[in-house]
Write a structure and sequence with these properties.
The chain is mainly α. It is 64% helix and 0% strand. It contains five helices and no strands.
Length: 197
């Protein structure tokens, strides 16, 4: 079949005389068009030369939200456990016990959610700042952001706890990077070995 129908204007009233009616496949009774005019395009459009994955700034929002939600869940479960123990020791029953349980769950859940959300905001801010400063997004940024987050989070507790917080941040972010390298792909590990060793 020739492709001369592509050079003719599109008619919405009736089927084109160049095309038999059995080839027209309307998608809707309100739209009468040939489905061959539709071309498959990529679902997302990326600017030329742009990365096809989200950067640190785009990921920051989901990291902060998920950290707060995980903190609320963990804190809520811990609050329920502590509330059950506290109300059992106080021999509370009925409505008073339910109210005390809700108070424990809400208070500890909100506190833990705030803590993890704050840590996630600091980590994301350091990660975005390091990416902007260095001009690239790699594992060094992840480890440095983890260390700086622990350092800043414990900065008001004294020099010793500040150093401990930095060490914990460095350790957790290093474990995350190591897990991503070994669990993700061996190609990435080979690239790092050839780059740094």
């Amino acid at each position: 079949m020739s492709d001369d129908y592509l050079s003719k204007p599109l008619s919405f009233g009736s089927a084109s005389p160049a095309l038999p009616s059995q080839h027209i496949q309307p998608l809707s009774p309100y739209l009468n068009y040939d489905s061959r005019y539709l071309q498959t395009q990529p679902e997302f459009i990326f600017p030329e030369g742009a990365s096809k994955q989200r950067g640190r700034f785009e990921l920051a929002f989901s990291q902060i939200g998920s950290s707060a939600m995980i903190g609320a869940g963990i804190g809520g479960m811990a609050g329920l456990y502590n509330g059950m123990r506290a109300t059992a020791l106080a021999n509370q029953t009925g409505k008073l016990r339910r109210t005390q349980l809700l108070n424990h769950v809400m208070k500890q859940g909100a506190g833990t959610a705030n803590t993890l959300g704050t840590i996630a905001v600091m980590y994301s801010a350091f990660g975005v700042l390091l990416q902007w400063t260095r001009g690239e997004d790699d594992e060094i940024n992840t480890i440095a952001a983890g260390g700086a987050t622990g350092l800043l989070y414990k900065s008001t507790a004294g020099l010793r706890k500040c150093a401990i917080g930095c060490g914990i941040g460095l350790a957790l972010s290093s474990l995350y990077v190591l897990w991503g390298i070994t669990g993700g792909s061996s190609k990435k590990l080979k690239e790092l070995r050839s780059q740094y060793l």
